[in-house]
Write a structure and sequence with these properties.
With 443 residues, the protein is an alpha+beta fold. Helix content is 65%, strand content 17%. It has ten helices and six strands. Strand 5 (283-297) and strand 6 (306-320) form a beta hairpin. The protein starts with a helix and ends in a 9-residue tail after the last helix.
Length: 443
C-alpha cells in the first residue's frame, strides 16, 4: 500500500508540473531587454547622472552669457541736532527725518578671461560624452548580468523537462516491474529498486522546480518587474559566425568602452592644463548700470530742506591682472600636467588589459563552443545507447540496474549539454562586450 502511495505522489507531481508548464507565458529576449532598459535601478541612476552632465554642458553653464542684477534700497534716520554757531544762540532741532531711496540695474560681461571659459566649456562637452560612455557601460554590464540569469532560467527549465521525461520512464518501469512481479517474472527487489529510483527522480524534479522558481525571482529582480503568472524563457540559442567575431576583434580598440572612456579622460586632462594656464592672463570686463536715487534731507541752520533725485546710465570697462598669486597658478598647471601623464599611463595599461582580456575571452569562447559540440554528440550517443537498453530491458536481456545506468548516463549527458550551450552563449556575450559590439547585435 505504501509503495502505491509513493507511485501516486510521483504521478501527481508530474501531472501538476505539466499543467503549470502549459500555463506559462513566454518572456522572450527582446521583452527582457526592453524591461531591463526601462526599469533597472542601476541604469536609471546612470541616466540621471547623464541628465546632470547634459545640463552642465549647456550654454547656461558656460560663462559666456552676461550677468544682469538689480538692487533696491531704502534708508531712514530720525535725529536731534544742536547747532552752535559762533556769535549766535544755539539752535536745537528735534526729530529731523532723512530719507533716501535707490534702485539700480547692473549688467556685467566678461570679454576675455585667458580662454579659461572656452576650455572649460569644451571640457564639459567631453564630460558629457564620458557620462554617455558610463551609461553605455552600465547598460552592457546589466545586460550581461540579465542574460546570465535569463539563460540560467532557460537551462534549469530544460533540465526540468528532462526530469519530467525521466519521471515518465521511471513510472513506466515501476508499473512494468509490478506486473512482472505479479506474474512471477522477477523478484520483489526489482520492484523496490524501481520504486526507489522513481522516488529519487521525483525528489530531483521537486528540487529542480524549486531552483527554477528561485532563479525566476532573481530575473524579476534584475528586470524590476513582477509577473502575476509563471513565465518561461526562450531556450533557442544562436551563435555568431567566427568570421564576424574576428572582424569585431580587429576593431575592438576603436569600440571598447574602457578605451573610449580613458581617451575622454585624457582629453579632459588636456583641457585642465589649458584652464589652469588661463590664470596667467588678464581679465577684461564690461559693465553698465542704470541707477535711480532720491534723497530727502531736513532743513539746517544754513540751508532749507531739500529733495534731490538722480537717475542715469553709466558704463565702463575694467582690466584686472593678477601679476603674482603666490605661485598658486603655477602649482595648478604643474598638477594638471601630472594628471595628464597619469591618464597616458592608464591608457597604455587599459589597452594592454583589454587586449589580454579579449584573447582570454576568445579562447574561452572557442573552448566552450567546442565543448558544446562534443556534448551534443555525446547526447546522441547516450540517446542511442538508452534506446537500445530500453529495448533489451523490455525483453529481459539486461537487468534493471543496467537500464537505470543507461538512463542516468542520458540524463547527465543532456544536462551537461544544456550547461555547455548556455556557458558558450554567455562566453560569446562577454567577448562581444569586450569588443564593444554587445549593443550592436540582434539577440
Amino acid at each position: 500500500m505504501r509503495s502505491k502511495l509513493v507511485i501516486l505522489l510521483v504521478l501527481l507531481t508530474a501531472c501538476l508540473t505539466a499543467q503549470e508548464v502549459r500555463k506559462d507565458t513566454l518572456l522572450n529576449k527582446n521583452q527582457a531587454i526592453e524591461l531591463v532598459l526601462s526599469k533597472n535601478f542601476d541604469i536609471e541612476v546612470s541616466e540621471n547622472n547623464l541628465e546632470i552632465a547634459d545640463n552642465n554642458q549647456g550654454i547656461l553653464n558656460s560663462g559666456y552669457l552676461p550677468t544682469l542684477s538689480t538692487s533696491f534700497g531704502y534708508d531712514f534716520s530720525l535725529q536731534d541736532r544742536l547747532a552752535e554757531v559762533e556769535g549766535r544762540e544755539p539752535i536745537n532741532q528735534n526729530d529731523l527725518e532723512t530719507r533716501s531711496y535707490r534702485a539700480s540695474l547692473d549688467l556685467n560681461y566678461t570679454v576675455f578671461d585667458g580662454l579659461g571659459r572656452l576650455y572649460n566649456y569644451k571640457s564639459l562637452k567631453e564630460q558629457y560624452d564620458l557620462s554617455e560612455l558610463e551609461v553605455r557601460e552600465t547598460i552592457e554590464n546589466t545586460l550581461i548580468q540579465m542574460f546570465t540569469v535569463y539563460y540560467e532560467v532557460a537551462r534549469i527549465y530544460e533540465n526540468v523537462q528532462i526530469l519530467e521525461q525521466t519521471m515518465e520512464i521511471s513510472n513506466e518501469r515501476v508499473k512494468r516491474s509490478n506486473y512482472q512481479f505479479q506474474f512471477g517474472q522477477n523478484s520483489k527487489l526489482v520492484v523496490l529498486n524501481a520504486e526507489v529510483d522513481a522516488a529519487n527522480d521525483s525528489i530531483n524534479l521537486i528540487n529542480a522546480r524549486q531552483n527554477l522558481e528561485n532563479t525566476r525571482r532573481d530575473l524579476m529582480l534584475i528586470l524590476n518587474t513582477e509577473f502575476e503568472k509563471e513565465f518561461k524563457v526562450d531556450t533557442l540559442v544562436n551563435f555568431i559566425p567566427e568570421l564576424l567575431i574576428a572582424q569585431y576583434i580587429e576593431k575592438a580598440e576603436e569600440n571598447n568602452v574602457s578605451v573610449l572612456k580613458i581617451e575622454r579622460n585624457l582629453t579632459i586632462s588636456d583641457y585642465d592644463i589649458k584652464i589652469s594656464r588661463s590664470g596667467y592672463f588678464p581679465q577684461i570686463d564690461l559693465f553698465g548700470s542704470y541707477g535711480w536715487n532720491r534723497n530727502i534731507s531736513p532743513e539746517s541752520p544754513f540751508f532749507p530742506g531739500s529733495t534731490q533725485t538722480l537717475e542715469g546710465l553709466s558704463a565702463g570697462v575694467s582690466l584686472s591682472w593678477n601679476l603674482f598669486d603666490g605661485g598658486q597658478t603655477a602649482v595648478r598647471v604643474q598638477n594638471a600636467k601630472v594628471g595628464y601623464k597619469t591618464q597616458e599611463v592608464l591608457k597604455d595599461q587599459i589597452k594592454f588589459q583589454v587586449k589580454r582580456d579579449i584573447s582570454n575571452a576568445f579562447n574561452n569562447y572557442k573552448n566552450r563552443l567546442y565543448i558544446f559540440e562534443l556534448q551534443e554528440q555525446n547526447v546522441i550517443t547516450n540517446k542511442n545507447n538508452f534506446d537500445r537498453s530500453k529495448e533489451q530491458f523490455s525483453i529481459g536481456q539486461i537487468t534493471s540496474i543496467e537500464f537505470r545506468q543507461a538512463q542516468i548516463n542520458l540524463i547527465n549527458a543532456q544536462t551537461s549539454r544544456n550547461l555547455a550551450k548556455y556557458d558558450a552563449k554567455i562566453a560569446e556575450l562577454q567577448l562581444l562586450q569586450l569588443t564593444g559590439q554587445l549593443l550592436n547585435i540582434d539577440f
